[in-house]
Design a protein that fits this description.
Number of strands: 11
Shape: globular
Number of domains: 1
Structural class: alpha+beta
Number of helices: 5
Helix content: 10-25%
Order of helices and strands: HEEEHHHEEEEEEEEH
Strand content: 15-25%
Radius of gyration: 21 Å
Distance between the termini: 75 Å
Oligomer: single chain
Largest sheet: 9 strands, mixed, barrel
Length: about 280
């Protein structure tokens, strides 16, 4: 009976109907490279913490009589400020910080409310913008590409030819496009050290170089990976990886989420003649 069942499985072939990397992806504009045009989104917990983690009571905690409890600032948020568990997206599970950089990560986490740039609607940087819980759009031409994100309506102007070192550091950095077969490779340099990787205080310096790879895996999935190199913060290069999923709604689009006006009171409210209470 078992041999018959095994024989039927072998005749039937693989149970999965997913497209493999060996299949020829549909060609994009110009007919040379695969078509990555569309709206994509990550479906994981990397937005909270890149590393494998258990659920936590709050994004910012203090020590209570029987273990960690939410900080005073996040207490009223209840479960909204809690951290869901996540399997992690870091290859090898642990980000290889130097001892000094790890201490800064822990300090960032303990002061999340005052330090996370997302709270103040600063641009998210790379790679954080890719796995925030909102869609982004890849607009691909014959040789060029452009990426639009929902959060803060962040955009990435992508160079088809390397213009040399970025003239100035910026929140989203300078990105150069290349191709490795059917894989779109984006190399980003010149980012400000102010951006974080997630809500867990993971950080980097202005020396960081991010090399992202987008590889089609069927019509509605991309295999995404990003290799991070930053000798001022990490003991070696390290990598994250995850699938990205195509948003399938018929009317999907990137809607306005220009959040600077939402944080004006947070940033500048104390300068009012009569501050709000």
């Amino acid at each position: 009976m078992h041999r018959l069942f095994l024989g039927l499985l072998l005749l039937a072939g693989p149970l999965s109907c997913a497209t493999t990397g060996d299949d020829k992806a549909e060609r994009g504009p110009g007919g040379i490279h695969p078509d990555l045009n569309g709206y994509w989104q990550a479906m994981n917990e990397a937005h909270y913490d890149l590393e494998r983690h258990m659920a936590r009571s709050s994004l910012e905690e203090r020590e209570g009589p029987r273990g960690p409890v939410p900080s005073k600032g996040t207490l009223a948020m209840g479960a909204i400020a809690s951290v869901p568990p996540g399997l992690g997206v870091v290859e090898g599970d642990v980000i290889p910080y130097t001892p000094e950089a790890l201490a800064k990560r822990d300090e960032n986490r303990a002061n999340w409310l005052s330090r996370d740039p997302e709270i103040k609607c600063y641009l998210p940087g790379v790679p954080r913008s890719t796995y925030m819980p909102t869609p982004f759009q890849i607009i691909q031409g014959d040789q060029e590409a452009f990426i639009v994100h929902t959060y803060a309506n962040a955009v990435r102007n992508i160079y088809a030819e390397d213009p040399g070192p970025a003239p100035i550091d910026s929140w989203m950095g300078q990105t150069v496009l290349s191709w490795e077969g059917d894989t779109m490779v984006l190399t980003t340099t010149g980012q400000l050290a102010d951006t974080w990787f997630d809500r867990a205080g993971n950080h980097h310096s202005e020396q960081m170089v991010v090399v992202e790879r987008f590889t089609p895996n069927g019509p509605n999935h991309l295999d995404y990976e990003a290799t991070i190199t930053d000798p001022a913060t990490f003991t070696r290069p390290w990598k994250i990886s995850m699938p990205l999923y195509r948003r399938m709604e018929a009317d999907i689009k990137i809607l306005d989420y220009k959040c600077p006006e939402f944080v004006e009171e947070l940033l500048y409210g104390d300068f009012r003649r009569h501050p709000l209470k």
